[in-house]
Write a structure and sequence with these properties.
With about 120 residues, the chain is mainly β. Helix content is about 0%, strand content about 50%. The strands form two sheets. Strands 2, 4, 5, 6, 9, 10 and 11 form a seven-stranded mixed beta sheet that branches. A four-stranded antiparallel beta sheet has the order 1-3-8-7, with no helix packed on it. Strand 4 (about 35-40) and strand 5 (about 45-50) form a beta hairpin.
């Protein structure tokens, strides 16, 4: 059973930084897509960034500010968030699509395993 556990959320002022972590366990697939998603109150869940062996994908709204990475030895994925804005506020989720052999995915509808989420709040 795939398990994903996020950590690192919190409250920060506009312009600040946070790093989210996602610890993965329960699968040995080499073909996958992993990603970060967020959901603000009253809004749909949206893709933020994704990663696999083919590379990375970012939503236009976070390009140049957020960086996704992974440490395969630790089975952990990260999201470094810099220059945070109030509109980045929301619940951030880690997700995995296994198996998957193409480019990393940004659509939340295509993911089949989810973490419980971690809250990020950016104040102005």
């Amino acid at each position: 059973q795939v398990q994903l556990v996020e950590s690192g959320g919190g409250s920060v002022q506009s312009g600040g930084s946070l790093r989210l972590s996602c610890a993965a366990s329960g699968y040995t697939y080499s073909a996958y897509s992993m990603g970060w998603f967020r959901q603000a109150p009253g809004k749909e869940r949206e893709g933020v960034a994704s990663i696999n062996s083919h590379g990375t994908e970012y939503a236009d709204s976070v390009k140049g500010r957020f960086t996704i990475s992974q440490d395969n030895a630790k089975s952990t994925m990260y999201l470094q968030m810099n220059s945070l804005k109030p509109e980045d506020t929301g619940m951030y989720y880690c997700a995995a699509r296994v198996p998957w052999i193409g480019r990393p995915l940004l659509s939340p509808k295509l993911y089949n395993h989810w973490g419980q989420g971690t809250q990020v709040t950016v104040s102005s």
